[in-house]
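Structure in, sequence out. Go:
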């Protein structure tokens, strides 16, 4: 599991080209909710230098842009270091970020205690 370490978007095709053992990047899509305490395995969209494919459960198709902090993973048959370099970064308006769009609202209990101490 990796994540984009830069405060800028990186381009997936250049990341793959810079790492000879990486062919496909996988992104968790959160398309299918957890059931029985586990998530379905068909929640991963994939991206190669040929383009993106939505997860088997549907959802967004990766466009090759990886936002700052976006997590992803890949398979590799070799134990080799992964290379990130500044040339991967580029300035683009990217609205694609694979995350759950449901906001969790936390109930607030504004409770406080007052202690009166006699003098």
């Amino acid at each position: 599991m990796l994540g984009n370490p830069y405060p800028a978007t990186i381009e997936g095709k250049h990341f793959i080209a810079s790492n000879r053992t990486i062919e496909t990047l996988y992104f968790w899509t959160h398309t299918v909710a957890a059931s029985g305490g586990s998530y379905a395995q068909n929640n991963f969209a994939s991206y190669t230098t040929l383009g993106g494919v939505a997860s088997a459960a549907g959802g967004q198709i990766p466009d090759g842009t990886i936002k700052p902090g976006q997590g992803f993973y890949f398979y590799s048959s070799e134990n080799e270091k992964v290379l990130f370099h500044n040339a991967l970064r580029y300035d683009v308006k990217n609205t694609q970020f694979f995350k759950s769009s449901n906001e969790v609202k936390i109930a607030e209990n504004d409770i406080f205690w007052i202690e009166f101490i006699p003098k």
